[in-house]
Amino acid sequence: MSNNNNDTSPSTPQAMRAWVYTSTRGGIEKNIQLIDNAPLPFHPPLPNDAILVKVHYSALNPADYKFPELGLPMRALIPTPASPGMDFSGVVAQVGDAVAASFRVGDNVFGRIPPSKHGSLGEYVCAHLDGCAAVPEGVSLQDASCIGTAAQTAYQCIAPNVKEGDKVFVNGGSGGTGTFGIQIAKALGCHVTTSCSGKNAELCRSLGADEIIDYTAENVSQVLKAKGQVYQLVVDNVGTPSDLYKAADHFLRPEGKFVQIGGEFSLTNITTIMSRQFLPSFLGGGKRKWQYLVTNNTHADLEQIAKWMSEGKVKAIIDEVFQYEDAPKAFEKLRKGRTRGKIVIKCST
Ligand SMILES: NC(=O)c1ccc[n+]([C@@H]2O[C@H](COP(=O)([O-])OP(=O)(O)OC[C@H]3O[C@@H](n4cnc5c(N)ncnc54)[C@H](OP(=O)(O)O)[C@@H]3O)[C@@H](O)[C@H]2O)c1
């Protein structure tokens, strides 16, 4: 296999197209600009342990606007101008020596890069083995682009915490993480209860949810409490109702676990959520094991999800595919918080 790990390779582009922001005042969608002369995501030569991927699809996640909009603290970590986006699928353009056994130029790959200056709304991304895997036969690049954050997060919340036959409650079953969470829990042989609005009940049922709680018509915590201590795991993709963790004393088994990923991204909210964990129960604390999960790029997890996709056990639910030029509109829609499954941007073909 030929390695193109040098700066004189004819396949090394000199600059690239990218959506970039320097400010996020008023919302990232009002600030991102499409430019033709963005720098490559690496200073040639390509690092030994990396691959260069031409991005074909990028799926958006709430963190793609939440992190940049954190302001100054984030600027310290990610200097601007920067491209948003973490999830990608595309074709390998160059391969570093150390990963030459895993990837070849021309391979279809997908994955997730951590939030960075060179996000997946750039023409190329630089990916590492932990955050990247091959797209299996029978899976489209468009579908594979949805796995990186939403499916990987759902997998990491659920797989280590359940066994076949366990009951799982997925709070918020109709968004990116929820649609994957329902299917992953079912693929692992669990019984799934999920919350969603009435209009999304049929979607969640079609993905395998056994029981649905319409959060717009019922009190989620009360409905769950009435079931008794039968659940092994709660995955909270939403962060509301605010009494859900405390109420879990009544519906999670004593050895069960409450895994939080979602919620409003503010210091106040994060402090409130975390303090629940340490407060005594008379001050609103709960008794069950609690974890705030941060997605951790893991090659084996990406491979497992893609395998399930190729076997038809898990599918990507795509709300809408936007053209590359319409990236600001994609962010506008994402921010509304009503996405059914994923929002995808078609970057190139
Ligand atoms: N910690 C991590 O590493 C990590 C990783 C991934 C995601 N996250 C966070 O997890 C959250 C979910 O992410 P996502 O990608 O799934 O977001 P998303 O796709 O934007 O979620 C939208 C969905 O949430 C549903 N929803 C809104 N309010 C709800 C409620 N009160 N009860 C039930 N469902 C509700 C909406 O359905 P309706 O229209 O019916 O309301 C919609 O289908 C976000 O806060 C995100 O930042 C964290």
Explain what the structure shows.
- This protein has 349 residues and is an alpha/beta fold.
- The protein has two domains: 16-146 and 317-346, Medium-chain alcohol dehydrogenases, catalytic domain (Quinone Oxidoreductase, Chain A, domain 1); 150-292, 3-Layer(aba) Sandwich (Rossmann fold).
- 26% of the residues lie in helices and 25% in strands.
- It has eleven helices and 15 strands.
- The chain has helices at residues 63-66, 72-77, 141-144, 147-158, 176-187, 201-206, 220-225, 244-251, 267-278, 299-310, 327-335, and strands at residues 16-20, 33-38, 50-59, 87-95, 108-112, 124-128, 132-134, 167-171, 191-196, 211-214, 231-236, 252-260, 289-292, 318-323, 342-346.
- Strands 3, 4, 5, 6, 7, 14 and 15 form a seven-stranded mixed sheet that branches. The chain has a six-stranded parallel sheet with strand order 10-9-8-11-12-13. The protein has a two-stranded antiparallel sheet with strand order 1-2.
- Mean pLDDT is 93; it is low at 1-8.
- Bound molecules: NADP nicotinamide-adenine-dinucleotide phosphate (NAP).
The CATH homologous superfamily of the largest domain is called Medium-chain alcohol dehydrogenases, catalytic domain
What's the number of domains?
A: 2
Mean pLDDT: 93
Strand content: 25-35%
Name the ligand types. Answer: NADP nicotinamide-adenine-dinucleotide phosphate
The string of secondary-structure elements, in order, is EEEHHEEEEHHEHEHEHEHEHEHEHE
Q: Based on helices, strands and strand pairing, what is the structural class? A: alpha/beta
Low-pLDDT sequence parts: 1-8
Q: Largest beta sheet, briefly? A: 7 strands, mixed
CATH class (first level) name of the largest domain:
Alpha Beta
CATH topology of the largest domain: Quinone Oxidoreductase, Chain A, domain 1
